[in-house]
Specification:
Elements (H helix, E strand, L loop, with lengths): L23 H28 L2 H35 L12 H27 L4 H27 L3 H25 L3 H9 L4 H8 L1 H7 L7 H21 L3 H9 L3 H24 L1 H10 L4 H35 L7 H26 L3 H19 L5 H25 L13
Helix pairs in contact: 1-5, 1-11, 2-3, 2-4, 2-6, 2-9, 2-10, 2-11, 2-12, 3-4, 4-5, 4-6, 5-6, 5-7, 7-8, 9-15, 11-13, 11-14, 12-14, 13-14, 14-15, 14-16, 15-16
């Protein structure tokens, strides 16, 4: 996994140098892929909600959230791979250790899958109330694939290969929809939707087979040793795991703090998922763009946050109004009369999505600045705060809203404090905390 000696050269390593500052065209391409990905995600949720009653949907949603949690943690590899490749364009590295991120990802994925399988008797009975061992197996194997998927995305983002980046995103989402549609048509039931959840974990392999650009990116060496890469990635994985708890893994957190969620939990989980997806799916998909942007604007980190934050806040406020006005009607008519929620709840949940979106932005800025400890501390603090708030002696809907609104504010404060304390460019000095 590590070589030494020759100067770092992306082209000779099999990749290509970044083209320059992240451009609007890259945002447009990833934005288009994100729209397709979001529609595919909605399609899977729609089919599952229509095919399964609320209680059954809540079981599916917990596995969907569990896989989102572990795959979200794996996306820390995306962040570190993007930062290392992108930062290399601003560094003059003549010699030193090298690492192959895709090989590192393969090892991390294998070890993580084994850890899930070995530890599953301790926790799986508390999380998966049906299809327990199928869920554990799919979770472990799917995570191994997602580690490679996320790292390949990071390499492509660092190299400005946004068409291949978007294709990999769409391939992941498309495979999920194909399996979900087949499940709906043949009446496979819960098990089919569990398979659909992890189906996209093989998209990276398909891309390596059909895309020369992806193969070149996968062969790239980065100008740090494996140990240094893993040290930075460990912080990113910790933070990404904490963020995944608040984003994709929130149903698991609700399950852990509430016991049996039942039909009421299925409604709340679906409401949370639908109100946050329009904002958080694009932000999650654009992590590569955001980190590349903040690396390129490394001399003005806080100023570089302003425009993205205004976009997130503006789009989110429009979402709040839409959720209040038409959300209940869409939920009832789109998913069935069993799914009832009032406009105020949907509006507040959308407000929680804004808070998590802003935390995602400040986190990306911290990663770009190599503030790994502050990045992970911010997300962990937000998750701990949200978890404690979910333990309040209130009804499920109220404590869910309070946790999603207030928890992220703690993490935002941590990130902004760290960013404001560093007011000079650090790209000339490689410092992995």
């Amino acid at each position: 996994m590590t070589d030494a000696g020759a100067p770092f050269d992306a082209l000779s390593a099999g990749g290509a140098s970044p083209a320059g500052p992240a451009a609007r065209s890259s945002v447009a391409r990833v934005g288009a892929a994100t729209a397709v990905t979001a529609l595919c995600g909605y399609a899977v949720l729609y089919l599952a909600a229509r095919d399964l009653e609320p209680a059954g949907f809540s079981v599916f949603a917990v596995f969907w959230g569990a896989f989102g949690l572990v795959s979200g943690a794996a996306f820390g590899l995306l962040q570190e791979a993007t930062r290392e490749v992108r930062s290399a364009a601003h560094l003059d590295v003549a010699e030193g250790p090298r690492s192959r991120p895709m090989w590192v990802a393969a090892v991390v994925g294998t070890v993580s899958a084994a850890a899930i399988a070995i530890s599953s008797p301790l926790w799986s009975g508390h999380v998966f109330v049906e299809s327990r061992w199928l869920s554990v197996t799919l979770l472990a194997v799917g995570l191994a694939g997602i580690c490679l998927h996320a790292t390949l995305l990071g390499m492509l983002a660092g190299l400005d290969r946004w068409t291949a980046y978007g294709s990999l995103m769409v391939g992941d989402a498309g495979l999920r929809v194909l399996v979900a549609v087949a499940t709906f048509l043949v009446g496979w039931g819960l098990a089919g939707y569990l398979w659909a959840t992890v189906a996209g974990a093989v998209a990276w392999l398909i891309m390596l087979i059909v895309s020369p650009t992806s193969r070149r990116a996968a062969a790239l060496l980065t100008p740090v040793g494996t140990r240094t890469f893993l040290r930075g990635a460990s912080h990113s994985i910790t933070a990404a795991g904490a963020s995944a708890i608040l984003v994709m893994g929130f149903p698991v957190l609700l399950q852990a703090t509430s016991g049996d969620l039942g039909a009421a939990g299925g409604v709340v989980i679906l409401a949370v998922t639908l109100t946050r997806a329009p904002l958080l799916v694009p932000l999650t998909a654009m992590q590569g763009n955001l980190i590349a942007h903040f690396v390129d604007q490394r001399a003005h980190r806080l100023r570089a946050l302003t425009v993205p934050a205004l976009v997130v806040a503006g789009a989110g406020l429009l979402g709040v109004l839409a959720a209040w006005a038409v959300g209940p009607w869409l939920l009832r008519n789109g998913f069935g009369s069993e799914y009832l929620a009032d406009g105020a709840l949907l509006a507040w949940l959308t407000g929680g999505a804004i808070a998590i979106g802003l935390l995602t932005l400040t986190g990306a800025a911290a990663v770009a600045a190599a503030l790994h400890r502050a990045y992970s501390l911010g997300w962990v603090s937000a998750t701990v705060a949200a978890t404690l708030l979910l333990l309040l002696p209130l009804d499920l809907q109220t404590r869910t809203v309070i946790a999603l609104l207030c928890g992220p504010l703690v993490g935002i404060a941590v990130h902004l404090s760290a960013l404001s304390s560093v007011c000079w460019p650090r790209s000339e000095v490689r410092k992995n905390e």
